[in-house]
Design goal:
Layout lengths: L1 H4 L38 H19 L23 H5 L6 E2 L5 E2 L10 H5 L6
Length: 126
């Protein structure tokens, strides 16, 4: 499952949360939440508390009619793109894809604005 969803694992093989103190039930990928024994061995009371927290986090997203995506994101200048796949290889979130026109394309909802693709692009098409 970790390979399928690209979840990070601890050295013990359990799922790793985004931040121990600030986001204890969130994965690094937005909209995916963690609870129970997949996180680490814990008591039933702690598991129930974590499950309630994860469901509350999911409810905040599911209760909205539409989601706004914000922040700094990468934008490709299609005419300068050489489709060399460098951005696809270096992106830690696997966001860039080559579209039917043979140009890199960024999924705005998935882009975290880390800048890895921009820094590595040999054609400077970002």
């Amino acid at each position: 499952m970790a390979n399928l969803f690209k979840f990070p694992l601890t050295l013990d093989g359990f799922f790793l949360e985004a931040h121990v103190k600030l986001r204890p039930v969130d994965f690094a990928t937005d909209g995916l939440y963690l609870c129970g024994m997949a996180h680490y061995p814990k008591s039933i009371n702690e598991t129930i508390s974590q499950a309630e927290a994860a469901s509350a986090r999911a409810a905040t997203i599911l209760s909205q009619e539409a989601l706004q995506v914000g922040g700094v994101i990468a934008v490709v200048e299609g005419e300068r793109c050489a489709a060399c796949l460098t951005c696809v290889r270096v992106c830690p979130y696997e966001v860039p894809m080559i579209n039917a026109k043979g140009e890199a394309e960024i999924d705005l909802a998935k882009c975290k604005g880390c800048g890895s693709c921009v820094a590595e692009c040999p054609a400077r098409s970002y």
